Amino acid sequence: MSQLPKHVAIIMDGNGRWARRHKLAIALGHRKGVEALRDVIRLSSDAGIVALSIFAFSTENWRRSKEEVDALMNLILEYFRKEIDELHERDVIIRILGDKAALPQSQREAVADAERRTQNNNGLHLNIALNYGGQDEIIRAAKSLAAKAVAGEIDPEGITAQTFENELYTAGQPQVDLLIRTSGEMRISNFMLYQCAYAEMLFPEVLWPDYSVDLFKEDLKRFGQRDRRFGGRNA
Asked: What is the pLDDT of residues 154-194, one digit of tens each?
């Protein structure tokens, strides 16, 4: 635990399979997943991790059944109403990654209130990806820079990696050091494509609702044992 990642990203996969395995409604699998998330956030905050990004709802998730989408939207609303007090007390800064305009009104209001309430905190950056896609984020950033160039606000020849990163949802935060995807699936599913350029990746087979604090600690320790070269070569 002496070499903690500054930024951890998590794809919380396996809620549906967990529910089917236990012969429960999928909505109950997502609810159980929220319980696992709560403990991971607490440990991240206590350990001094700078940023924790979680993939809650992708731009592609709208394709799921109306029943599941409605259940997820209701759970999002419930999460912010129930958890915001503790998160605020822990000095957590909430940032929503994704197109908030497409969320239902109640959810838009809830996430906007959470961001507003915690914006001046100084603790863990908790990034919650809602209606998020990594390709969409990159296109959005490119369009923003193009508009500024057309308006004469920037010189296209002067655009740097830092300039581009300032247009991303995670502007001002460190790049992802560790990406964890539960359930054994070995893909990143359009999540934080730019930010994960040099991320170490772990794919534990456990389904997300069964992902415990002890397993999170083990993954953090495994990260600390990695030899990170960033394209170079260590002596």
From this structure: 999 999 999 999 999 999 999 999 999 999 999 999 999 99
Tell me the residue ranges of DSSP E strands in 84-183: 93-97, 125-132, 178-181
CATH architecture of the domain with range 7-133+174-223: 3-Layer(aba) Sandwich (3.40)
- Cα separation, 97 vs 136, in Å, equals 11
Token couple for 148: 């500024």
- Most distant CA atoms of the chain, gap in Å: 59
Residues 6 or more apart in contact with residue 19 via CB below 8 angstroms = 25, 26, 27, 28, 29, 30, 32
Domain boundaries along the sequence of the chain: 7-133+174-223
SS3 231: coil
pLDDT tens column, 127-148: 999 999 999 999 999 999 999 9
CA 190 from centroid of its chain's CA atoms: 12
- List residues with catalytic annotation: 13, 61
